[in-house]
Amino acid sequence: MRDPESLTIPICLDRRADRPLQDQLAEQLAAAVDHGQLALGRRLPSTRTLAERLDVSRGVALAAYEILYARGYLDSRRGSGTYVADRAAHRPTAVRALPAPEPGDLVDTTPGQATREGFPLAAWRAAWRHASFRPPLPCDLPLGGVPELRQAVAEHLRRTRGLVAEDHEVLVTTGAAQGVTHALTALGVRGRRVAVQDPAPWALRQAVEDAGATPVALPANRDGVWNGVVPPSCVAVVVSPDGQAPAGAVMPTLHRRQLADWARREGGYVVAVAQDHIAPAAAPLPRLLHMAGERVVVAGDFRTVFVPSLHVGYLLMHRGLLARVMRSVCRNHDQPSAVAQSAMAYLLAEGHVTRRLRRLGRLFERKDALVRAALEPLRPAVRLAPPGTPGVVVLHLPDHVRAEQVHAELGVRGVVVPTLASFHLPGRPAGNALVLGHGHLPDQALRTALGELLAVLRPDRALIDRVIGL
């Protein structure tokens, strides 16, 4: 009887080639299925066994299987293993399962949207399959969230952001904005002033108002860099130190120290919003959590890593605040379902989140280069802000070209490009600029947006044709 953990076809991986090993492995396994070398219904080795046989990391084998799951070549049977799927070569691919927008649809370049490109469909399905096979909880959800998710989030933050604090714990929420509201509510900010990074997404300002506080702007320069001063009478500050749309300015070490000193000196609190679609640098800057300890709360979610409908977020806070925030969450029933929490724990524990972050980083880098090259002919009249939030470019327009008029003209043409003013708090002086979020756009939609933008700002037909034909 044939050993189910054996693989009878030859596999040759070239470590010197430009193509990743997982792509080479997936391609050779797919070819073996197409040519009948691997029979339909044949059980394949586990990823651990395959990695050992080929002398590669298990991550390579796992990624290759993910590719084949997404293409319909493989099927998983609970408690049994991985098999060659029936009629594998005729199954629709993951791209077809996530159709691109129909021609004529509105192209919305507002930042903060998730991308469907390269979506890990096999991992997504596996996560929900894993969660649905578990028996339902016999009681109400535990306060603070399902333990396996709280542990997975803590490990994710430790591994990707270096956040290590033994006196801090994770609490599960339905999203970063809701987490900010719960944290501020627990801190008793109702009727008080809370400083908010400006410019900032509308949802962040709304979260402060939902807690009953008055949001005031942290003063910053035209590129979104804070000047180091916290407005008077503020009891808390809400910032994204590692970059936030639209400006994406990363808070330097000096300003982090100033903010930590303010929190300790004034008895204030800092709510640091982690942008989880942004992969932190290899050598991260000092963390506010480590600089101000119990005075810092970290809020985040995974909506832009996967899909907005995945309402799973988290708070990382000192144990002294935990009980107060739990009461706020419990009172509002603001916690994801047990199935959603279990699925998210699986995605984190199996490394799918970090792999997705790396892929998004490469995708955004490619698109950012394309956008900047396409807009280069507009310079020097149009100034492109320095690279900030991945997947977002800010265009500062000359004084005689008003951003509001360009925004209106593009809207008539079926393209939404928000103004920088829409990200500022009311009453704040706003620059004459547009915010082009492109990371979430399919290539065709991106070319359409760029073509229409150039048609309004510089109606050069040859230039527009070149951009659309990229």
UniProtKB/TrEMBL annotation:
Per the record, the coiled-coil ranges are: none
Domain of life of the organism encoding this protein? Bacteria
Name of a matching Pfam family: Aminotran_1_2
Keywords per UniProt: Aminotransferase, DNA-binding, Pyridoxal phosphate, Transcription, Transcription regulation, Transferase
GO terms assigned for molecular function: DNA binding; DNA-binding transcription factor activity; pyridoxal phosphate binding; transaminase activity
SUPFAM superfamilies (alphabetical): PLP-dependent transferases (SSF53383), Winged helix' DNA-binding domain (SSF46785)
- What residues does the HTH gntR-type domain cover? 19-87
Keyword match Membrane: no
Among CDD domains, the record links this protein to: AAT_like, WHTH_GntR
**What family does the entry list?**
In the C-terminal section; belongs to the class-I pyridoxal-phosphate-dependent aminotransferase family.
What protein am I looking at? GntR family transcriptional regulator/MocR family aminotransferase
The upper taxonomy is:
Bacteria, Bacillati, Actinomycetota, Actinomycetes, Pseudonocardiales
